[in-house]
Amino acid sequence: MVNNDGVKVRLRGFMVKDRNHLCDVGISHRVNIIDKGTVDIPMLQILRPDGSVHDNADMPDISKATAQKIFQTMHYIRVLDERMVGAQRQGRISFYLACSGEEASTVGSAAALSEHDMIMSQYREQGTLAYRGYRTEQFMNQMFSNKLDPNKGRQMPIHYGDKALNFMTISSPLGTQIPQAAGYAYGQKMAGNDALTICYFGEGAASEGDFHAGLNMASVLSCPVIFFCRNNGYAISTPASEQFSGDGIASRGLGYGIKTIRVDGNDVLAVYLATQKAREIALAEHCPVLIEAMTYRLAAHSTSDDPTGYRSKEEEQKWREKDPVQRFENWMKSKNWLDEAQHKDFIEKTRQEVLAAMKKAEQVDICDIDDLVNDVYDTPPWHLQVQLSQLKQHISQYPDAYPKTSGRIRHD
Amino acid sequence: MTKMNMLQAINSALITAMTDDEKVMVFGEDVGHFGGVFRATSNLQQKFGKARCFNTPLTEQGIIGFANGLASHGSVPVAEIQFGDYIFPAFDQIVNETAKFRYRSGGQFTCGTLTIRTPYGGGIAGGLYHSQSPEAFFAHIPGMKVVIPRNPYQAKGLLLASIRDDNPVLFMEPKRLYRASVGEVPEEDYELPLGKAEVVKEGDHITLLAWGAQIEVIEKAAAMAEKDGISCEIIDLRSILPWDAETVCASVKKTGRLLVNHEAPQTGGFASEISATVQERCFLYLESPITRVCGLDTPYPLAHEKEYMPDHLKTYEAIKRCVNF
To answer: Where is the Transketolase-like pyrimidine-binding domain (chain B) (predicted)?
Structure first.
């Protein structure tokens, strides 16, 4: 689209066809106001809510092993969410954020990626991370901010990050990862990597300036990135109807010249197929692709939120009937790919594993006090060294007030 | 050595860095074929291709967001914000992302390779929005380095060091010196240290501290004071964050007096931080209160630019007040 070489303007300002902002523009002699919603963006759905396959639906080429891994990961996350919400209620961790209802979007998309693809998530993508291979003990070490957390206990629970799994560390500010994903993908393209970046965000975050900046940058600079919007209906308490009045998020992709697909976010096969296709296009054509997954946040926004104040039981019930996990289970059964006894065993083992890992992680120390000033810079500059040394002296003076670190102070 | 103005020195640094490391990429508004509104990126696209030197859409938050992602991938982005006055849409990306990337991930990911270049400062009849000196905002962000050169030689050496430093650096260029400041600059590769102030001239009675374009101003004031028999020590701070308290305090212990000059408004300016640290460390050596000669606490004016500026005359008067305290 963008042609930096050239704006060729002929004499007397007569513009030739290659002037970008005027090409392909037709002329009308009548006042044509374009109404909103005139572009129909359908939603790809392969499975009906009962798990049966639509007639003539495009089917992804999916192996039994992949389907089983997706299915197990969805259940793993249900167990993890349930246990961790409980742990927060017991006061064992300060905060948690469940993803019930959105398992198909996050797990189905993860399954369509290569392990070399970078994942930049918002914060409700534990399904994506679990599919990549994040283990229970790793989830726990992060949530208990202990010294085994690779982030060194510096961030609130659920701000995971794992370089080995190509999962970028989560940041609380909304939408900041969107232009970053464009930049990361540009780096992948320049380095000749056979990989792209997938960037997750919600429909609320898509109101941030960074969304618009990021999509435009990615489009203009031809970055191989998949922008994956989880349109789950709510940004904390604000319904999508009070977030935007256009046709969802998909319509914005068209405005930025980005290939776009809308998908049923509760249909894991549709998400899987859409993401596979998006990946193919992004890598082959060096361009971004926008996916809008229409889903519903059955969970509260976080453990600090109570949805009964802003939405009805009836509405929630309507969406429970479209539950992505049940829908996929029905399909798995129809394929004879589900061993129910084995599955029951998996759920029970997962519950025990989560409880055991939690008990273990909460016993592990937090990082040494020196890590308070490490990683601000590549090495602590003089002023951080002075501040650390003063702090250590102070802690030594009042060891009882700082019990987590006072026993392990090294005065260098 | 070649005679260069500051823009040529910056251009030379960018060419050196891009030749040395193919991961270095330069981008921003109008930096491509056009070479930037000040021409600091002239010929880079022609030399290194469109993939490594390119225009971006007009979105500062997009530029820095993109740069953060690119840096975290391991590339070496040199992002230009066309005027320091327009850096604020990118403030969130800088404060919450660039600066915290390494810390929040426990060192797994970093934006250490990022350098943000931006022209700053007044004296060019730029009014409110082409004149500001926002260094103090960025001095309040753990994780960032802030560097400001005073002449072409410093500009090239400090910019090369900034690009290669494994920490994100905000490199602020005093735009009124872009063409006005001319000096001998080596054509070859060299670096000057970050976080180190430089004693530009030794003296006995008072330490004058500034950075960027204000070094010329305090030099002029010092020349006037010398005629009155006042010997001034002149220090260029060069790095605002982390700043070289050791060199400054050693000088103050010797002279017993400190004057800090900056263009930015006085209240909350970086002179405040310097004053607090120096009085903590040098209290018993001080012979007079630490003096600040700064911009007024107003938006940067247009018609009253001359009156607003902390010029050599205001500095000269402050030197005398300080010495005669």
So the answer is: 4-180
Per-residue pLDDT reduced to its tens digit, B32-52 = 999 999 999 999 999 999 999
**pLDDT, tens digit, for every residue of A93-129?**
999 999 999 999 999 999 999 999 999 999 999 999 9
**Residue B193 maps to a domain:** no
B155, B185, B215 — which closes off a domain? B185
Q: Which of A138, A207, A210 to mutate to test the interface with B (most CBs of B within 10 A)?
A: A210
**Which residues of chain A form CATH 3.40.50.970?**
43-361
Hey, are the CB atoms on A162 and B108 less than 8 Å from each other? yes
How far is Cα of residue B144 from the mean position of the Cα atoms in its chain? 13
- pLDDT value at residue A21: 65
Q: Of B185, B220, B242, which residue constitutes the final position of a domain? A: B185
Contact A137, A357 (CB under 8 A): yes
Answer whether CATH 3.30.470.20 is correct for domain A43-361. no
- Does the annotation mark A297 as catalytic? yes
Active site residue: B29, B97, B130, B173, which one? B130
Residue B251 lies in a domain: yes
What contacts B215, CB < 8 A, 6 or more positions away? B150, B151, B200, B234, B236
B192 inside domain: no
Q: Which of A19, A54, A135, A310 is catalytic?
A: A310
- Residue A109 CA: distances (Å) to CA of A114, A161, A264, A276, A280: 11, 18, 12, 8, 13
**Among B214, B244, B186, B228, CA closest to B8:** B186
Peptide bond preceding B193 in cis form (omega within 30 of 0): no
Do B166 and B65 lie in a common domain?
A: yes
C-alpha dist (Å) from residue A328 to A62, A331, B130, B147, B304? 13, 5, 58, 56, 71
In the block, tokens 């002329």 appear at A27
Q: Tokens for A193?
A: 């990597």
For B98, the domain range is: 2-185
- pLDDT tens across A156-196, in order? 999 999 999 999 999 999 999 999 999 999 999 999 999 99
Complete DSSP assignment for B7-30:
HHHHHHHHHHHHHH-TTEEEEETT
- Assess whether B99 and B134 both reside in one domain: yes
Whole-angstrom distance, CA of residue A97 vs CA of residue A156:
11
